[in-house]
Structure formats: C-alpha cells, structure tokens
Amino acid sequence: MKEITIDVLKDAAQRLMFDMSDEQYAKLFEEFKIITRQMDLIGHIDGVDDAQPMTFPFASETDFMREDEPTDPLPVKEVLRNAAEVLDNQIKLPKVVG
User: Fold this and answer.
1) Which contiguous run of DSSP H or E holds residue 76?
2) Other C-beta atoms within 10 Å of 12: how many?
3) Which of 32, 87, 88, 97 is at 20 to 30 A from 76, Cα to Cα?
4) Is 30 strand, coil or helix?
5) 37 by DSSP, 3-state: which?
C-alpha cells in the first residue's frame, strides 16, 4: 500500500478539484494514521484472506417483491391536470441550482 503523507493527501485533493487549509490536512493526516493502524490490525486476523467479501452486511431476501403486471399508462391530460404550469405536455419546475 502506498504510504499516506500530507503530500499524497494534497495530490488527491487537487485531483478531486478541492483544497483545504494546512490545519485541515494535518487533521486528515492524523485520521489516516488511525485508519491505517486499524487496517493493519484487521490484516493480522487469522483467516481474514479466506473470508468472502460482503456487499451488504445482512442477508437480504427479495422474495417479497410483487410480479410486474403490464398496465395501460395514464392519459397525458390526467397526469398534467394538477401541474401549475404546462407547455407542450411538459411541466415547468422551479430552478433548483444556482
């Protein structure tokens, strides 16, 4: 594993197009030291390499899902009847970003 240094953290931040103060980088570096110690401890557990990776921490049963049954779509006029502003069968929504 690549050694984590403040320069590595700054390079990663630059690649993600953000920056932090030197104090924030120092705090992040200290947190990474804790994480790497924890990863090292986990790596020393007997049989850890034989364990199957998990994508979800609990068994998930999906037999409760309903069967898909094709139906006719709602008429356009019924779908749009409660919209405040409609133009060419499209609903005008308020701007939400910048």
Assistant:
1) helix 76-80
2) 12
3) 97
4) helix
5) helix
